[in-house]
Amino acid sequence: MKKIEKIIIIGSGPAGYTASIYAGRYNLKPILITGYNEGGQITKSNKIENWPGEFNNITGIKLMQNIKKQAIKFNTKIINDKIINLNYNDKIITLQGEKKKYFCLTLIIATGCKPKKLNLNKEKKLYGKGISTCSVCDGFLYKNKNIAVVGGGNSAAEELLNLSKIAKKIFLIHRRKLTSEKYLIKKIKKKIKKKKIIFYKKYKIIKIHEKNNFLNKITIKHLKKKQKKKIKIKGLFITIGYIPNTKIFKKKIKLDNQGYIITNYKKSKYISMTNINGIFAAGDVINNKFKQAITSSASGCIAAMEAKKYLEKINKKIWLKKKILKFKEQ
Q1: Which entry of 138, 256, 284, 301 is annotated as an active-site residue?
Q2: Which entry of 113, 134, 284, 301 is annotated as an active-site residue?
Q3: How far apart are CA 282 and CA 39, in angstroms?
Q4: What angle do CA 114, 118, 120 make, to 5 degrees?
């Protein structure tokens, strides 16, 4: 006999933990399954200046520790496991973890996404020590310093323009011409003309150098001429896109062409619900534009509130008919 939970949340970043706080306050006794990257991408930020109420700055790790404590305060049961499969049958959601199976009536997916990597030496080691993927999170650490940005799409352009207000000089490195929107390219070209941005077109980074465990310089190479150049910098922003953590949901839940979960698929009253009744999604796993902790947190709040409303709706069909929320595993 297996117990069916009212709600399970998978993912332990700002969206997941915020959802658990609200679900806990609704007395839904939420289960949160962390995955193996507890805290999410934000834990890699050494200094967060834009979280409301934290005017003295806070590290990503400390922020997530605080939110986790708040979730526990509201009776969230936290399980360290990773979900590897999902099935839906007869209004029961079955989650297969690496350690065990879980069953629930509602599910909130908050598995987030991860930045694409250059897959270079020392890239992982120096993340948070000169290497970043978020100008809003880490930009002010490089005020009046020389930095580099890799990428040429909209995300890269927006990061570049944001950083150009902060950094002394920016080296833009991209394999081809810029592919961002025309109005962004126009702004970038103005800054190139003023030599605020130095554009290394048709170049790629081939090596990352460190000094005293911090980023010190990079080596770039021309794609055709094979010309190499070393650039001394204090910060490197990798903006070549994101990969949503949705691999296990393929062919189970509707995804867009980039792999992000589509919500409000049936244009229902639940804006965070997927194409499957009872399964909701929140945070960066649905949002391929803003990538901010605060927007993820708000999304988690909405998903929990809507899950509560959905449970109240099916309560009339299941609980009031005195169905026992246990079933024999087949």
Answers
A1: 138
A2: 134
A3: 15
A4: 125
d(CA 153, CA 185) in angstroms, rounded, equals 10
φ and ψ at 217, to 5 degrees?
-165, 170
**CB 41 within 8 Å of CB 94:** no
134 is catalytic: yes
CA 314, 318, 24, 68 torsion-angle sign: negative
- Please report, as a single letter, which amino acid is at residue 111: T
- Non-local (6+) Cβ contacts of 167 within 8 A are 139, 142, 143, 144, 145, 146, 147, 235
Each residue's pLDDT tens digit, 71-98: 999 999 999 999 999 999 878 999 999 9
String of DSSP letters for 270-288: -TTB-SSTTEEE-GGGT-S
User: Which residue in 104, 137, 284, 301 is the catalytic one?
Assistant: 137
Give the DSSP per-residue string, 174-207. ESSS--S-HHHHHHHHHHHHTTSEEEEETEEEEE
pLDDT of 149 strictly over 50: yes
Q: Which two tokens stand for residue 43?
A: 């834990």
At which residue do the structure tokens 């001394």 appear? 232
| SS3 (DSSP) at 137 | helix
Q: How far is CA 239 from CA 41, 158, 185, 298, in A?
A: 14, 10, 16, 24
Residue 104 falls in the annotated catalytic set: no
Cα angle value 229/147/243 (rounded, 5°): 95
Residue 270 carries which side chain, given as an amino acid letter?
Y
Query: Which residues, including other chains, have CB under 8 Å from residue 106's CB and lie 6 or more apart?
Result: 6, 7, 8, 93, 278, 279, 280, 307, 310, 311
Contact present, 103 and 93 (Cβ < 8 Å) = yes
pLDDT in tens, 36-54: 888 887 887 767 878 998 8
Pick from 94, 110, 163: which is nearest to 133 by CA? 163
